[in-house]
Amino acid sequence: MRISMQSRLKKKFDYAYRNMGDAYIRLRKYKEAIEALEKVTELAKPEVVIYEAIGHCYDRLRNFAQARFYYRKASHLNQEDSKLFYKIACTYFNEGQWESCVKQLEQALRIHRTQPEYNLLMGECKMQMGMTRDAVQSLLNVVSMRPKNVKGWEALIRCLFQGGFLDEAMEQVQHALHMTQNKPVFHFYKAAILLADSRKKEGLLQLETAVEMAPKMLKKFIELYPVSLRDQSVIDLLARMKKKGK
User: Which CATH architecture has domain 11-112?
Assistant: First the structure.
């Protein structure tokens, strides 16, 4: 009778702490959520969902080492869940540990090779490692699987641009404009490619068009091609466009 009562109380507290943890996560009170969810680990058998939730909270707090620790605990319980390896990879990426990130992504991709998010992160990681061709291949996988995904096209074009493959970057910009129904960001990228390719007149006209379409996205152009701000023609154009906007 006593054991039965203890069992019922244990289940009652377990349920309460789970609800508290979930509520705190929804309120973005991650420290409080961790405390509640750790109580669950003391009361119940190890569960993937609880370890993953604790890892998520540490992730949000940017404590990537602790997030990784709990994601690993979850992955040990379910080694076929590719999402957990991806989350571990993300913690390494956020810390700039590219090789460790790649190893985790390789495990995730062995389980789900066609997952766009995994290929996107692999491309970004390989880009950071200076492995442009490998990065391009991963990013081509992304845009082939999700041709309307803006992030995939952006990463692919950025990779080609930074690698100095301007002809290929221009080709992909044209594909991106077609597949994403003329998204303004790709007009900025097109302008950057033209200017970097010493096609100044075309580049300035394209930049003017892009700014007219979406002035708030100018930062995308600057992020891709910051040295353009050394060009007086670009500075004059942006000053004129700003004045015109007023």
Answer: Alpha Horseshoe (1.25)
